[in-house]
Amino acid sequence: MKKENNMVKKLKYSSLAIASAALSITACKLPAVVEKTENNNLPASYGNSQDTLSAAKIKWKEYFTDPYLNALIDTALVNNQELNITLQEIEMSRNEVRARKGEYLPFVGVRAGVGAEKAAKYTLQGALEEKVPIVDDKENPKPVGDFLLGVYANWEIDIWNKLHNATKASYNHFLASMEGRNFVITNLIAEVANSYYELLALDNQLDIVNKNIEILTSALEIVKMQKEATRVTELAVKKFEAEVLKTKSMQYDIKQQVTETENKINFLLGRYPQPIARNDQSFNSLVPPAIHAGMPAQLLANRPDIRQAELEITAAKLDIKVAKAQFYPSLGISAAFGYQAFNPSYFLHTPESILYSLAGDLMAPLVNRNAIKATYMNASAKQIQAVYNYQKTVINAYVEVANQLSKIGNLEKSYDLKSQQVDALTQSIDISNALFKSARADYMEVLMTQRDALESKFELVETKKQQMNAMVNVYRALGGGW
């Protein structure tokens, strides 16, 4: 017994010596890698603004007050196909975490088997079977049966935290996919809102065209009367007729844009084309709310794409540790317990038919480690790549907010000036018509006044749409909506 204990001790010390030698051999030749650290220093403010309140904290149902728009967004968040695809990617990431967790737990299975074996006579096993009886003094059976039922277990001891780090990396990838979903949501809300305001603008432009057609048609009747009175020529009549036809053709261009915009919204809502419910009379009364941009540093917490990029860096650093652990020895334990016999009648004889085993193995790569080196260097390159992607995302976020804030300010001034222009040209229409009736103005002046007024009204509507789009886009750029 004492001798046996000494042998166990020798085996234990030998294993430790081999492990130490293998570790020293593998560790001394590890390729050098460079880990890059992200820089998340942002400017202190957007220009001269010192606002600390960010609109990103406002829920989208409070930010958008149009009930028709909110109903469309609600439908999109349930049925949008891209969002649903992203949700399935999240589920796959969740399953990857489960799989990684299972790798550092013992793998236990049940094995059952039935078979028969006949050894050739002129082999060692066959010769033994010929001379050594298995059942009493009778001739050995040919072939010999084999019946087996047992429990088997395999377990890799995570001595270098390789498996645990792989699980942590998978979990960070999972969290990154969750932030990816949030980024899809905020973009989806912005896209639905922008398309909705575009639809309202088109409705408004169509209404302007219809009213302009009425004005031109009335002017055409006046010109015809002037021709009968020989005060103008047929040329004036044809010019007015051409202008009426041109304006009528604009109706169909706008109607086509309305159809395409409605179908775009329906696509975002994951449904087939159908009319979009909306309050098109409220467009002119829309006033963009005052935007609170907050501090640039708040983008790090509010923007889902920045949070996603940050999590990817954490996962990439863990992947480096996992790849590095591949150079070190791995320790595995295997065990089995069950019953095995050549005859079913002996199958449950205890302890004669009991089968058990317990073994441990230590393995370390020594020669031709190119594949492991490549994986290690790739993990390092991906970590550097993740840092660069993070820096790009942060800079892009700041630029997007700065651009939209500047746009909001410039559009507000532009809208005020265009509104004054529309008022002046609207008054000039009445003036030109009165002067034309009294033969104090040429018909071309009337036509040009009508064209200028129509263009200015279109531009005013376009500016209003751009204001609403900027209001939506700055909310998305700040990280709101998810």
TrEMBL record:
- Which of UniProt's keywords are assigned here? Lipoprotein, Membrane, Palmitate, Signal, Transmembrane, Transmembrane beta strand
Q: What membrane topology does the annotation report for this chain?
A: Lipid-anchor
For this UniProt entry, what is the primary localization, expressed as one broad class?
A: membrane
The region annotated as signal peptide is: 1-29
| PROSITE patterns listed in its UniProt record | PROKAR_LIPOPROTEIN
Subcellular location field: Cell membrane
Task: Give the CC-aspect GO terms.
Answer: plasma membrane
Q: Reply yes or no: does the keyword Signal apply.
A: yes
Molecular function terms from GO: efflux transmembrane transporter activity
Family per similarity comment: Belongs to the outer membrane factor (OMF) (TC 1.B.17) family.
Query: What is the recorded name of this protein?
Result: Efflux transporter, outer membrane factor (OMF) lipoprotein, NodT family
